[in-house]
């Protein structure tokens, strides 16, 4: 007889309890972001599940694995409070229903906005997926490059009057595209933004300025000097090819502040910037002063948009000698500066006195002796100005002044441009400036000028609109001057010189003023000539409210008299200019503002 006895040692042994470890115990990210952490599981008895609790609950099947790594994605709620923490607990159960010790993972909810402030002294590249806020005066220092990729949005803080100042030797490189422009805008919420919410971009370099010593850029404290001046024995070619970076497909919105009279920042201020800099496809909207202002330098630019500026659209000073081709100006009828708002304002300096390299002599009939190479002598071509007054009956701010205000020995040239919508056409302030144009130092040629004048000769229905100003600085006439005589005949004579090939249009009499509807508001009123040019009346702001300009306007000119007639034969056209367009103004059959511009930024959700 045999007997068998079972020993307890023959029972299956209980497996070791499972464990879980994490690749890191902490993380930080912003509301709405996902955080990923690796969980490493060891389960000798076969893993059953990985349980994740905290924030949201996840149960991950381990399918009996004895060792396994799992990448676990944890979503931070969009409503999470900045600065709070989220504690996530990991634990494992095995097929023997044993549980691991819990392991915690702590997520700190970070601020979704990255603050830029103070000095940027080392090169830095931003991330288009992040949000940025400029606080106070932010300086890109000599030797540093701030690179901004396509699609990046940078907001300016209102309370601190934020400004981005690129000092000489620093660079701002904005690599926007038509589909993903770089946007600098107000930090105020939609429907709460206004001009002057922040101070704008100040791009500075070391190229020519016609001053005795290096000037300091307006609106910035402590002062920042720029350019190369007489004190450095500079000439107009000094550092001409210097680069302050690249602005390609960029929007600048609600920027520019008038701190004190004649002490302002603009949408884009350029001081002593060289032509190694690229400026192409840049829109300045709802600026608190000028849209674009150049203080000396040689920088070139193409495809600029000045939209609803407060003061001037294109302002040149201190011997600026760059080139600009293709620019659009659109003005809102009730936004204008008390100093007097113009489409073009061109100076040599703050008065008509001789300056470094711009000391020619006016002998009463023309220019004799001295130099002119240091004068402001930029060349503009293919500009379209759609001013605030589309028809004579349109009410506009009384602070609007001139389509072109040319003064103080400036020698700028304007070619192949459509200039319209202001109550005064061309104003040349002083005898020296007029003489400079008579002798060809500056050239205004092959342009179409329309003026909705307000000055009258006579009264009643038989009154005629005044063409030539007869008092100093007269507004509301086609031609104006600020010479002691006040007689603008010389200005008219220059503009209408046959060789200049300019065309001028203005209503001849009150009874036949321009109206949106023929015969209204006075009998005999006629439609303005815009349709014949190929420019629809709807391109002007007209009677629309401040935020009512079309979302996607079409500025193309496929037919009409502006579609042909461009002339690039003047010696002032250098290699920078595209000489193939046949059209006068900024547009031919295509509209280069498509995709990248924004004409209703006030309601844009950034």
TrEMBL record:
Domain of life: Bacteria
Record's protein name: Cell shape-determining protein MreB
Organism the protein comes from: Chryseolinea soli
């Amino acid at each position: 007889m045999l007997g068998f006895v079972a020993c307890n040692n023959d029972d299956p042994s209980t497996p070791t309890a499972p464990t879980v470890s994490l690749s890191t115990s902490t993380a930080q990210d912003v509301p709405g972001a996902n955080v990923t952490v690796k969980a490493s599981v060891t389960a000798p008895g076969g893993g059953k599940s990985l349980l994740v609790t905290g924030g949201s609950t996840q149960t991950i099947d381990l399918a009996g694995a004895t060792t396994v790594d799992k990448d676990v994605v944890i979503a931070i709620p969009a409503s999470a409070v900045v600065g709070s923490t989220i504690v996530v607990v990991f634990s494992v159960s095995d097929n023997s229903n044993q549980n691991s010790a819990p392991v915690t993972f702590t997520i700190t909810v970070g601020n979704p906005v990255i603050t830029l402030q103070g000095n940027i002294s080392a090169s830095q590249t931003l991330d288009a997926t992040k949000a940025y806020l400029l606080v106070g005066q932010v300086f890109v220092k000599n030797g540093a490059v701030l690179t901004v990729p396509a699609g990046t949005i940078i907001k300016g803080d209102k309370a601190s009057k934020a400004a981005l100042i690129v000092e000489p030797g620093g660079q701002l490189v904005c690599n926007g595209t038509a589909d993903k422009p770089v946007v600098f805008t107000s930090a105020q919420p939609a429907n709460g933004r206004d001009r002057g919410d922040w101070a704008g971009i100040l791009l500075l370099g070391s190229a020519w300025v016609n001053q005795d010593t290096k000037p300091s850029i307006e609106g910035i404290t402590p002062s920042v000097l720029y350019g190369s001046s007489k004190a450095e024995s500079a000439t107009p070619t000094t550092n001409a090819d210097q680069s302050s970076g690249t602005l390609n497909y960029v929007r600048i919105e609600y920027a520019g502040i008038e701190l004190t009279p004649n002490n302002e920042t603009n949408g884009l201020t350029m001081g002593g910037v060289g032509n190694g800099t690229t400026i192409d496809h840049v829109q300045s909207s709802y600026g608190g002063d000028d849209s674009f202002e150049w203080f000396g330098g040689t920088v070139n630019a193409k495809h600029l948009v000045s939209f609803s500026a407060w003061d001037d659209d294109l302002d040149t000073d201190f011997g600026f000698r760059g080139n600009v081709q293709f620019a659009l100006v659109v003005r809102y009828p009730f936004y204008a500066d008390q100093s007097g708002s113009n489409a073009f304002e061109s100076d040599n300096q703050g008065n008509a006195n001789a300056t470094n390299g711009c000391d020619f002599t006016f002998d009463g009939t023309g220019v004799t002796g001295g130099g002119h190479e240091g004068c402001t002598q930029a060349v503009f071509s293919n500009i379209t100005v759609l001013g605030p007054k589309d028809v004579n009956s349109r009410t506009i701010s009384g602070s609007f002044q001139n389509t072109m205000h040319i003064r103080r020995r400036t020698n700028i040239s304007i070619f192949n441009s459509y200039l319209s919508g202001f109550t005064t056409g061309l104003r040349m302030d002083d005898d020296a400036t007029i003489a400079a144009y008579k002798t060809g130092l500056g050239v205004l040629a092959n342009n179409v000028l329309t003026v909705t004048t307000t000055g009258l000769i006579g009264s009643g229905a038989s009154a005629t609109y005044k063409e030539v100003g007869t008092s100093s600085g007269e507004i509301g006439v086609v031609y104006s001057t600020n010479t002691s005589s006040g007689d603008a005949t010389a200005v008219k004579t220059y503009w209408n010189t046959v060789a200049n090939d300019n065309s001028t249009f203005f209503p001849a009499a009150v009874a036949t003023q321009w109206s949106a509807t023929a015969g209204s508001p006075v009998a005999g009123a006629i439609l303005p000539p815009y349709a014949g040019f190929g420019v629809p009346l709807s391109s002007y702001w007209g009677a629309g409210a401040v935020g009512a300009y079309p979302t996607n306007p079409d500025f193309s000119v496929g037919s009409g008299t502006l579609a042909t007639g461009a002339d690039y034969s003047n010696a002032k056209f250098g290699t920078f200019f595209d000489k193939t367009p046949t059209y006068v103004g900024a547009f031919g059959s295509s509209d280069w503002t498509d995709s990248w511009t924004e004409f209703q930024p006030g309601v844009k959700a950034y």
